[in-house]
């Protein structure tokens, strides 16, 4: 068996694509279904195209409230501080800052939790992250 993708339903596909673009993912294909009034958009990191996230947008459907049964999707990043700074500069809330130089959590525009993990060993503590508080329900 081979892992293919995780699917999340999204209220605003363009806003969600912009979010994942900040993480370095790029759209690799999309499927419009006129009859079903939905669009599927697949994104992956260049060089890691086999690990995809599928965005499902149902026309006119918004206001998703996250089910407790879904946890998060996780990505390994080259530099957790640079990734979080890029997200923060773009207005994304860093809900669980990388105080330990290793792990951070953010959320997609619909509130899906995304874990960011430092590739390899944790980085040394660095401000502003070392003393940054959790934000929101974390
Ligand atoms: C292409 C393949 O990866 C799919 O996931 S298609 C699965 C299919 N999706 C839809 O019908 C999208 C619109 C639907 N209204 C929805 O919101 O899912 C499907 O069977 N979805 C049902 C599901 O529970 O995933
Ligand atoms: Ni699917």
Descriptive account of the structure:
- The chain has 2 domains: 63 residues, Roll (2,3-Dihydroxybiphenyl 1,2-Dioxygenase, domain 1); 61 residues, no CATH class.
- The chain is an alpha/beta fold and 138 residues long.
- It has a 4-stranded mixed beta sheet, covered by helices on one side. A 3-stranded mixed beta sheet has the order 5-7-6.
- The chain is globular and about 50 Å long.
- The chain is built from 2 helices and 7 strands; from the N terminus they run βαββββαββ.
- The protein is 14% helix and 35% strand.
- Bound molecules: ligand LWWXVOTR and nickel (II) ion.
State the shape.
Answer: globular
**Spans where pLDDT lies below 50 across 5 or more residues:** none
- Counted by DSSP, the helix tally is 2
Second CATH tier, the architecture of the largest domain: Roll
The CATH topology of the largest domain is 2,3-Dihydroxybiphenyl 1,2-Dioxygenase, domain 1
Rounded mean pLDDT is 96
**Distance between the terminal alpha carbons, to the nearest Å?**
34 Å
Strand content: 25-35%
CATH superfamily of the largest domain: 2,3-Dihydroxybiphenyl 1,2-Dioxygenase, domain 1
Biggest beta-sheet profile: 4 strands, mixed
Physical arrangement of strands within the biggest beta sheet:
1-4-3-2
Would you state the CATH class of the largest domain? Answer: Alpha Beta
Q: If you compute it from the alpha carbons, what radius of gyration comes out, rounded to the nearest whole angstrom?
A: 16 Å
What is the share of helical residues? 10-25%
Number of strands: 7
Structural class: alpha/beta
Bound molecules: ligand LWWXVOTR, nickel (II) ion
The H-and-E topology, N to C, reads as EHEEEEHEE
Number of domains: 2
Protein name: Lactoylglutathione lyase
GO molecular function, one term: lyase activity
Keywords: Lyase
InterPro entries: Glyas_Bleomycin-R_OHBP_Dase, Glyas_Fos-R_dOase_dom, VOC_core
